[in-house]
Amino acid sequence: MKFSIAIMLLLLIFSCSQKDQNSTSKKDSTIVAIDSVAVNIDSSKIENFKHEEVEYEEPKDGFYSKDYLEKHFKAKVYYQRKNGEVSYYKIVIFKNKKQIQTFKIAPEAPFYNDDYINLTFEDANFDGKIDFLITKFVGMNFDEKYLYLYNDKIFIKKKNFDKIISPTVDTKNKQIVSEYHVGPTEYHREIYKWKKGKLIQIYSQVEGEDY
Questions:
Q1: What's the domain range around 99?
Q2: Which residues lie across from 114 on neighbouring strands?
């Protein structure tokens, strides 16, 4: 009888031990599965990982305008988009919200993007009055600009300023600086000063193998 009871106790202990092992095994396998990358991916949403194709829509042909502001002045530039090209054709100037002048002008050649239509108000001749410049032409490594000087009443176009390549207004040194490349290695730098209302070149330097 005692032998039978001992055998039954041994069987009971063995059975409990087996259950604990199975429980631990299942628990461990669950932890591994949770840590697995595969468990964190919802197979029903796999399509969301695909890159969405963004379709570029070409701007429509038509007539548009852009405003440029500087204190009391506003310039409204009217331009046309046609067959993938952009060209301005009129500029209207306002002072204190009153229209004071209209220019019918155009760039030397159409642009491919209206971002190339760039008008800036600057004191280009350093007389304390706000003038404005607008892009005339854009090349691979340079641009050209028209300059209109203000005389307290109207803006007047400065002749031959558009012949200067890539001009920038150097307010600190009161000069016009031209810097541009010709080919991959030839670099040009020119400096102009105002003298009696005229721009005079005072410096010119060329660096590179092509000159």
A1: 62-207
A2: none
Question: Tokens representing 13?
Answer: 């202990």
Per the structure, the count of domains in the chain is 1
Tell me, yes or no, whether 25 lies in a domain. no
- The H-or-E segment that residue 202 falls in is strand 198-207
The pair of three-digit structure tokens given for residue 125, joined into one six-digit string = 């001749």
Helix (H) or strand (E) holding 169: strand 167-170
**pLDDT one-digit tens code per residue, 165-205:** 999 999 999 999 999 988 888 999 999 999 999 999 999 99
Tell me the two tokens of residue 189.
């730098």
Rounded CA gap, 145 and 119, in Å?
9
In CATH, what number is assigned to the domain containing residue 123? 2.40.128
- Measured between alpha carbons, how far is residue 78 from residues 121, 132, 143, 177 in Å? 17, 16, 20, 29
